[in-house]
Amino acid sequence: MIAIGCDHAAVNLKNAIKAHLDEKNILYLDLGTDGEACDYPDIAEKVCNEIIYGTAEKGILVCGTGVGMSIAANKIKGIRAAVCNDCFSTRYTRKHNDANVLCMGERVIGTGLALELVDIFLETEFEGGRHQRRVDKITELEAKSMLDGDEEEF
Ligand code: RB5
Question: Is 9 in the pocket of ligand 1 (CB under 6 A)?
Fold first, then answer.
């Protein structure tokens, strides 16, 4: 299951991705927006929660640039969101970073390339090994940053 969401700047791209997933019989949850103006962090939160709570394995977030969605998504513990505009970065953010959210910008890349990136993102496996150690360190950074917040209370 893939969780998918967009803001008002990327409804066309989200619809193209949905049609692409339909063709491939890949199940998805569409968390909006259907067209009304919205704030991208709200959509990022909805999509990422589906991953954190285990309903979805991966997420796809699209906005004007992909950047706002990725910044918001990466604030959520356990999320590794990557903005990708090319095949190489998309392949390697799966192989090396175990990215669980793909972010793209409708105002940045064409639909054909975006759909190819979706395929690469969904089909490429994490390599593990030395990359697992590095991903674990990202998880440790999340924990440390939470500790820093607690310390300020003392
Ligand atoms: C909306 O105009 C735009 O700011 C948003 O889609 C996104 O590009 C933000 O990063």
Answer: yes
Residue-range domains of the chain with CATH = 2-145 (3.40.1400.10)
What does each of the 154 residues of the chain score in pLDDT, given as a tens digit?
Answer: 999 999 999 999 999 999 999 999 999 999 999 999 999 999 999 999 999 999 999 999 999 999 999 999 999 999 999 999 999 999 999 999 999 999 999 999 999 999 999 999 999 999 999 999 999 999 999 999 877 655 555 4
Global confidence as pTM: 0.95
| Nearest of 67, 71, 73 to residue 3 by alpha carbon | 73
101-105 and 58-63 beta bridge pairing: parallel
- State in Å: Cα 40 to ligand 1 middle: 7
